[in-house]
Every structure is written in structure tokens, then in C-alpha cells.
Write a structure and sequence with these properties.
There is one protein chain. The chain is an alpha/beta fold. It folds into 2 domains: 2-108 and 233-240, 2-Layer Sandwich (Nucleotidyltransferase, domain 5), CATH 3.30.420; 122-227, ATPase, nucleotide binding domain (Nucleotidyltransferase, domain 5). 30% of the residues lie in helices and 27% in strands. Strands 1, 2, 3, 4, 5 and 8 form a 6-stranded mixed beta sheet that branches. Strand 9 and strand 10 (136-142) form a beta hairpin.
Length: 243
């Protein structure tokens, strides 16, 4: 069975039909730049354009959003306009595209994908997914069941939010060497470990494809491994969230 997954990011909105059984794209994805300002009506127009590009994919559409989501309503906004706060994204997209939607937090979607078809497949106990990019997203699973909207990237670590110390964007902005950045990431992981005691931590986001540059410099208690699905995880997880 195929479902359409859409991943809304700060710079681009991407979508593709996903084979739910294999967790792979059934067709080449379509990417459209996120409209300047990222206001609801403008984003909804792009989402509708992606849906129209794949008219043959039946069923509800899965969609990620960079916010805390509650029953399809955005309670926060990251890298998009503040007018999203309180917006019923599911209703907005349905009105724009004429299809039912399931809208989930972007890091939760990536975690769902990794647990079903990636690095977390078959893992039990407490599993934490961290997505390192502009910020730090998080997804927490207990025996394979998602605990939604954890937002651990906003935990305070040494006087700063975790994502302000160890996001991939921080490494790039401050031109940190991999070892220097890994030391910051180690502190963030240790702080989360003291609260959650996970058996496994998966590191996602685009930086996960360079894991050999920083994982050897970490000294975690839990197992830490790179995610496998890289930047496809959001689309795949969004599609899986519809089933």
C-alpha cells in the first residue's frame, strides 16, 4: 500500500508516495522551496501543489510540521511564521488540497520511520531519536510506542538550550572542528541520559551521513548509532503516520 508523505521544512517542502511495507519511495520526490515567511496560506498552497502532483495516491496524506502538534493543531512554530500557533494545520491543508491529512511533529515522523524501517527496527525499551540540523528535534519511544512532542532540544544544558549548544547549525556557524562539536553533543546527550536512561540513541538529520567524523569522539552510557534514512525519514514517517 502506498501513501503520500510530505515533509515541511524551513527551506523546502518535499513530498513523495511511500510504499508502507518497504519504507521506500515509490516515485521520485518533488521539492518546492518553502515560501518566504512561511505563512499558513502560502504553505498550504505549496502542500496542495504537491498533492496535485501525485493524484493517483489514495488515502489520507501524511505531513510533518516543525511544531508541537496536538490533534492537528500547531501549538508552537519553528522556522515558520508565528501565525501558525493555534492554526489547525490538518483542516487548513484539507481545505487547500481536498484530501484528509494527518499532521505530526517533524522529529516524531523521522523517529517513526527509523523505528519501522531504519536503525531502530526491532529495538525495545526506551529509544531516543535526535535530529541535528537548524535545531535539535527529538522523538521518544517506549517499547516501540511514540511519546509525542518531547522537544528535548529546548532542555537547558550548561546555561543554554541544548540546540543552541550542539545543533548542526552551531557547528557550521562557529566553524567548530568535529571533536569540539562532539564534546558539546556529548554534554547534551549526557543531560538527556540522566533524565531518560535510554537503551539506544539514534542520531538523525543530514549530519548522520558523516557520523564517522563525530561518533568516535562521544562517550555515552547508552548505545549511540547513526540513523539510516537520512533526509528521507520525514517523508517516510509522515506517510507511515496515516496507517
Amino acid at each position: 500500500m502506498q501513501r503520500l508523505g510530505i515533509d515541511i521544512g524551513g527551506s523546502g517542502i518535499k513530498g513523495a508516495p511511500v510504499d508502507l511495507d518497504s519504507g521506500t519511495f515509490a516515485e521520485e520526490r518533488l521539492r518546492i522551496p518553502t515560501p518566504d515567511g512561511g505563512k499558513p496560506a502560502d504553505v498550504a498552497k505549496v502542500v496542495a501543489e504537491i498533492v496535485a502532483h501525485f493524484p493517483h495516491v489514495d488515502g489520507p496524506v501524511g505531513c510533518t510540521f516543525p511544531a508541537v502538534m496536538s490533534n492537528g493543531v500547531a501549538l508552537t512554530a519553528a522556522n515558520v511564521d508565528d501565525s501558525w500557533i493555534g492554526t489547525d494545520a490538518q483542516a487548513l491543508f484539507k481545505q487547500a488540497a481536498g484530501r484528509d491529512f494527518v499532521v505530526v511533529n517533524d522529529a516524531d515522523a523521522a523517529g517513526i520511520a527509523e523505528m519501522r524501517h531504519g536503525a531502530g527496527n526491532g529495538e525495545r525499551g526506551v529509544v531516543l531519536m535526535l535530529t541535528l540540523g537548524t535545531g535539535i528535534g527529538s522523538a521518544l519511544f517506549v517499547d516501540g510506542v511514540l511519546v509525542p512532542n518531547t522537544e528535548f532540544g529546548h532542555l537547558e544544558v550548561n546555561g543554554k538550550e541544548a540546540e543552541h549548544r550542539a545543533a548542526e547549525s552551531v557547528r557550521e556557524t562557529h566553524d567548530l572542528k568535529w571533536k569540539e562539536w562532539a564534546e558539546r553533543l556529548d554534554e547534551v546527550i549526557a543531560a538527556m541520559d540522566r533524565v531518560l536512561w535510554p537503551e539506544l540513541i539514534m542520531i538523525g538529520g543530514g549530519v548522520s551521513k558523516k557520523s564517522e567524523k563525530f561518533l568516535p569522539h562521544l562517550n555515552p552510557r547508552a548505545r549511540v548509532i547513526p540513523a539510516q534514512l537520512l533526509n528521507d525519514a520525514g517523508i517516510i514517517g509522515a506517510a507511515l503516520a496515516t496507517s
